[in-house]
């Protein structure tokens, strides 16, 4: 009978078997211990991470809440400052429009003064004098032009300051809009929870965005905007006060000059009326004297004709007596009387002729002077007419009381975004 062949295999001894069993038990026990430690550590880690996560979420929410409060506080400050800027812009616009109205109101006085100067240039002869009225009118024209220049400077400065305020308002609006957008974002972040459907993992969320600022820079930026606005408002307020004082001062100067000019005009008109009345009186007396002189000239001429006839008579008598014959041609008393008569008559005729010549010369001079006085009277009447026209022209300058305030219609101002009354803030 043949023997069975055994399959070759590795046989272990009992000790090896026991050793293997012990090792398996020991390893199992060790792994269980390690697993238990890991499980305990895992539980501890879960508790710790849960607490940490809960704390971090709570701390982040608190910080978000604090940040929202800070942003809201600055938003309110910017709103208040923006409202103040809008009010200041309205006040400065009103002051600027008042200056523009005052500037427009100087056009009529300047036109009236220039018209008065032109009218008074129409005087002729000795009436065309450089009197106090001319001086006052020229001073008035110079004053009005200076007032116009000062008012125009105020208007230009107010326009420039309005541009500065508008730019400041634009900066406040931009900063305010950023604060409102930031509030929306932070409030949205504050409302998010782990159960919110809009949460997701993002790519590189811990990156620092370009252009980001530090909290100090953030505060300084808003502080700078508010400080710039306050400074611009202070400059605007001082400018409004200066414009108001300057406008009142200029109006007082114009009113004072107007009264001085009209006083000089009335005084000059009174003097010209006196001169006209005096000249009319002189003309009347001269005309009376001329009439008397003409009458006396007629009498002198009649007397002269009568003396000529008497002289002819005396000459004839003397000539006829030269025909006496012989001794009768005697130089008797009659002859001497006739000679004396002729001498007296010739002297009288000579005196009468001289006086007649003087009277005619005087009459001619009076006529010439009378013509000059009539011409001067005509010029004085023309000058008075021009003065009266000047006074009538100045009636257009109706003085207005300083207490009368004409209401000014204001156009609603808009901010840099085109919205008025802070509509942006109400959103």
Indicate the mean pLDDT: 86
Low-confidence stretches: 400-427
Q: What gap, in angstroms, lies between the N and C termini?
A: 113 Å
Largest sheet: none
Structural class: mainly alpha
Q: Quick one: how many beta strands?
A: 0
Strand percentage, roughly? Answer: under 5%
Shape: rod-shaped
Helix content: over 70%
Tally the helices. Answer: 6
In N-to-C order, the SSE pattern is HHHHHH
Radius of gyration: 61 Å
Coiled coil: 240-303, 335-369
Keywords: Cell projection, Cilium, Coiled coil, Cytoplasm, Flagellum
Subcellular location: Cytoplasm, Cytoskeleton, Cilium axoneme
GO cellular component, one term: axoneme
Descriptive account of the structure:
It is found in: Cytoplasm, Cytoskeleton, Cilium axoneme. There is one protein chain. The protein has helices at about 15-105, 105-120, 130-190, 215-320, 335-395, 425. With about 425 residues, the chain is mainly α. Helix 1 (about 15-105) packs parallel to helix 4, helix 3 (about 130-190) runs antiparallel to helix 4 (about 215-320) and helix 4 (about 215-320) runs antiparallel to helix 5 (about 335-395).
């Amino acid at each position: 009978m043949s023997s069975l062949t055994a399959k070759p295999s590795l046989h272990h001894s009992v000790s090896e078997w026991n050793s293997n069993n012990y090792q398996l038990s020991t390893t199992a026990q060790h792994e269980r211990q390690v697993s238990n430690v890991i499980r305990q550590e895992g539980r501890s880690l879960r508790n710790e991470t849960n607490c940490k996560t809960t704390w971090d979420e709570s701390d982040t929410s608190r910080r978000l809440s604090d940040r929202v409060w800070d942003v809201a506080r600055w938003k309110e400050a910017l709103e208040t400052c923006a409202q103040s800027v809008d009010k200041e812009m309205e006040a400065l616009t009103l002051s600027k429009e008042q200056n523009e109205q005052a500037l427009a109101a100087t056009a009529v006085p300047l036109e009236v003064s220039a018209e008065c100067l032109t009218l008074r240039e129409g005087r002729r002869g000795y009436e065309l004098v450089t009197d106090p009225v001319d001086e006052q009118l020229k001073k008035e024209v110079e004053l009005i032009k200076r007032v116009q220049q000062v008012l125009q400077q105020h208007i230009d400065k107010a326009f420039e300051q309005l541009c500065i305020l508008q730019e400041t308002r634009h900066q406040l609006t931009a900063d305010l809009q950023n604060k409102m957008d930031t509030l929306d974002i932070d409030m949205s972040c504050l409302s998010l929870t782990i159960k919110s459907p809009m949460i997701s993992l993002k790519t590189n969320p811990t990156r620092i965005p370009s252009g980001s600022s530090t909290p100090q820079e953030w505060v300084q930026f808003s502080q700078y905007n508010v400080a710039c606005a306050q400074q611009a408002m202070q400059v605007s307020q001082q400018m409004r006060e200066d414009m108001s004082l300057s406008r009142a001062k200029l109006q007082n100067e114009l009113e004072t000059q107007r009264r001085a000019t009209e006083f000089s005009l009335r005084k000059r008109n009174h003097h010209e009326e006196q001169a006209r009345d005096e000249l009319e009186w002189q003309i009347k007396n001269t005309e009376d004297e001329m009439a008397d002189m003409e009458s006396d000239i007629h009498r002198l001429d009649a007397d002269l004709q009568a003396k000529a006839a008497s002289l002819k008579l005396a000459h004839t008598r003397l000539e006829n007596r030269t025909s006496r014959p012989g001794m009768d041609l005697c130089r008797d008393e009659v002859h001497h009387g006739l000679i004396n008569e002729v001498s007296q008559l010739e002297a009288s005729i000579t005196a009468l002729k001289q006086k007649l010549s003087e009277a005619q010369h005087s009459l001619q001079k009076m006529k010439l002077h009378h013509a000059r006085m009539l011409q001067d009277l005509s010029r004085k009447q023309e000058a008075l007419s021009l003065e009266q026209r000047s006074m009538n022209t100045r009636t257009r300058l109706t003085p207005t009381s300083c207490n009368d305030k004409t209401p000014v219609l204001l156009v609603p101002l808009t901010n840099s975004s085109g919205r008025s009354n802070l509509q942006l803030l109400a959103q």
